[in-house]
Backbone:
């Protein structure tokens, strides 16, 4: 989705005649908010080679930008100096630069996915949204608490794990490696979640694992179902600092594996006519409970957008969104009634 009217040139052999003609517009990969670089940082770095007219997102990845120079010669200089080399002005990142091409006019698309403002409007069994679950003062305290602790850097976001470490390679936890009780700064939240009307009576601890995710503006999360064998039924996710939308997808022919990706995006699943898509707005300070069908049989996904269209209103993502996801590590196998999506029940 090119917002600048320009896009990535087709992938072709370096020396073919189809190579895009030199112009004033560059397509720059490995650069953008998802890798910690603002449009202003990029404009300043490229500005060393001539007047930059604008910097904009090349697509929704947050990691590819279009840089428009006033003069083609300046674009040529920037390309010669910056392509494939660590850029000192941009934290040493190695940029991949090509001349851009004008984007094809957008194909007419269907009506945008409506975004529900409440879980009853969303209408997925087991998904419950509670707004203002914490106060603004509690939100600040929670953010301050995690900001004094070490973050682990992933490709596009930062995380912290408590109770048990979540292993991204296996999408599971090492249940034998207990890291300790959940930290005291979440005690109030734990007291409150047991009182939620949708929470079933529970004699043992409701949750014992916490993952804190920090998403920079424009960064989302690929569609997935939290591994059934890793976690019990109820998953609680508290949104702090900034809003986002969460999309839920049901694939009739799906399995517990992630849907196939096209070019590292989720285009394949968007185009799957069988896939049912629904979305809900998650405001800061809200708590989302995923349980039952919504937890076991629907993929959840945070689109990689900087701006969300919510009920006809344009909502800007914050500079960051921080979520606290509370789960209970499962001991033994999952015996849910959604065997098709269950790693414990698939061969
Ligand atoms: O950020 C969120 O609200 C969701 C996080 C999530 O789905 C996960 O960690 O599995
Ligand atoms: Fe998840």
Residues:
């Amino acid at each position: 989705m090119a917002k600048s009217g320009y896009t990535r040139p087709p992938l072709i052999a370096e020396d073919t005649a189809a190579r895009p003609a030199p112009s004033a517009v560059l397509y720059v990969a490995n650069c953008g908010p998802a890798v910690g670089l603002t449009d202003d940082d990029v404009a300043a770095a490229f500005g060393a080679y001539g007047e930059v007219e604008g910097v904009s997102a090349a697509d929704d990845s947050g990691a590819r930008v279009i840089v428009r120079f006033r003069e083609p010669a300046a674009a040529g200089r920037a390309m010669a100096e910056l392509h494939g080399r660590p850029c000192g002005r941009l934290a040493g990142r190695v940029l991949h630069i090509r001349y851009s091409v004008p984007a094809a006019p957008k194909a007419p698309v269907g009506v945008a996915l409506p975004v529900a403002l409440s879980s009853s409007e969303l209408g997925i069994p087991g998904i419950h949204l509670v707004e203002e679950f914490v106060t603004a003062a509690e939100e600040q305290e929670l953010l301050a608490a995690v900001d004094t602790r070490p973050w682990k850097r992933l490709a596009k976001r930062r995380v912290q794990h408590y109770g048990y470490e979540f292993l991204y390679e296996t999408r599971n936890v090492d249940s034998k490696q207990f890291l300790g009780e959940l930290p005291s700064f979440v005690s109030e939240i734990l007291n409150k979640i047991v009182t939620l009307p949708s929470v079933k009576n529970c004699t043992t601890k409701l949750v014992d694992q916490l993952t804190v995710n920090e998403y920079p503006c424009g960064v989302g999360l690929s569609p997935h179902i939290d591994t059934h064998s890793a976690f019990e039924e109820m998953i609680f996710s508290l949104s702090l600092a900034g809003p986002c939308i969460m999309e839920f997808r049901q694939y009739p022919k799906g399995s517990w594996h992630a849907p196939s990706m096209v070019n590292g995006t989720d285009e394949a699943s968007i185009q799957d006519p069988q896939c049912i898509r629904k979305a809900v707005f998650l405001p800061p300070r809200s708590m989302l409970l995923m349980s039952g069908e919504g937890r076991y049989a629907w993929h959840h996904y945070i689109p990689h957008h900087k701006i969300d269209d919510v009920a006809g209103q344009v909502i800007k993502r914050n500079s960051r969104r921080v979520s606290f996801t509370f789960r209970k590590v499962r001991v033994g196998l999952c015996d849910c009634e959604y065997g098709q999506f269950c790693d414990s029940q698939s061969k």
